[in-house]
What we know:
The complex is a heterodimer of chains A (403) and B (157). Chain A is of the alpha/beta class.
Amino acid sequence: MATLSERILDAPAGTCVDRKVDRAFVHDGTGVLTLGTFREIGRDLAYPDRISVLFDHLAPANTSVTADLQADLRRFAREHGLSFSDVGEGICHQLMGEGHVLPGELVIGADSHTCTLGAFGAFATGVGATDMAAIWATGETWLRVPETIRVELVGRLGGMAEPKDLALSYVGRLGMDGATYRALEFVGEGAQTLSIAGRMTCANLAIEAGAKAGLFYADEVTRRYLAGFGHEVSVQHPEEGEYAREMTIDLGGIEPVVALPGRVDTVRPVTEVEGTPVDQVFVGTCTNGRFEDLERLAALLQGKRVRVRTIVVPASRRTLLEAVRTGVAERLLEAGVTIGPPGCGPCLGTHLGVIGEGEVCLSTANRNFTNRMGVGGEVFLGSVATAAATALAGALTSPEGVP
Amino acid sequence: MRLRGPAILLPADVDTDLIIAGRYLRTRDPSTWVAHAFEDLDPTLAGRLAGTVLVAGPNFGCGSSREQAARALRDAGVVAVVAPSFARIFFRNAVNLGLPVAEAVLDCSEGEMVELDLAAGLVRAGTRPPVACRPLSQRMQAILEAGGLVELLRRGA
């Protein structure tokens, strides 16, 4: 009788355990620091075959300093036979989610949004560079098994509401530190109605409530998805466990929302801020840059033209290829959208699509902290449908009722 | 471990973007992170951090896993960070880098002398009565006492 985190980490909540890490990954940002620290430790790689290096944050490089730092990490990855994804392959969390994370695994990433991979019934959490360097050197890490908040999802999303609206809504309810040191578990019939892409979006925002992990139980949807990547996995069944808190969310009651600039937990119905002029719309990131998102955007923009600059950054090469093959990319381009190379895009204010002083962006990303996407700029967070309606109107617009 | 320094007060939910902005992360020169620490919160702060104890509101260090945030504070000479709660990745990063962190609800004014006794789990501001901080796990104490996780691993632990 245990929570999913307790089952995967094989110990009751509250205990500190040392565990062998099944998958460990870094990106170009944290990887550079990890490599420096790993060299200071002065040991060999414990399990090179479990380590991935994926370039996504500043990919392709924006300056020669970035290029030099990346060159060193690239060389190291190749010389040591690490799994390596170069510029243009996509975002680390998306790529790991394309068949490299399996239910029941312990996945550690040197990035806070590693919790995204809880969508597969894995225990996935983020660490900093020193913890990751220690994992490179020992193959293990220590963890305090978290208490769990059980989030029961009932019903199904209706109207124009998306998993992103669900995610922002639960962060709004919990607050930015409402789940600190804890895991979120998404259960119930409503959870099973969500696609893998939707589950990744939902798990992705767990960290925005402070959570250590956000988990879905592997079910038939997970099994079929992973079968597409050649993996045969078993489903996981929830048991009665001890939960720190239980909350229920009726998916049928979820409406399109935005998080106001500055905090992810200041969540309001889009209708309350409708008409706020925006300068840019950005669709992408580990939250909402998947094919399902691009396809939805293209469908909503089809035959129309955006009124503000609209940037789409696919989450991975596979996403972009699928968008090209299915005509989604063509429809986006015809609607006036700019498509960037797969990666993190302007999310953290360092790559293509950064905003300027006084500019406002509606973004499908997961963070809207002060100055994050550009000094003096403001970011509203919302869904793909809200992004589409806003891009067409040139101002924040609810997707409900848009013809 | 006994530590002391005058307090700099910080608000709740200070995120790691505020501690060190994304635009300064890519550099070969770690002093860049010290020079631009807290720039978007208060550009005068970076020059005043040495020898101080940061006394922050809840959820300090939320957001990105960027270790440059904890590194900037340590390298700037911050003695310790005290807050009612920390975001967990920042907390681990700080301990791993040898930057003392204490979870405590501390009544304190700007500039008031703060004293910490981490072994005893106590922190006090000025002449006010000491308050208890949440005890660190044995493992975290061992990492802090070694001066960080790298040092601990180099000693063969």
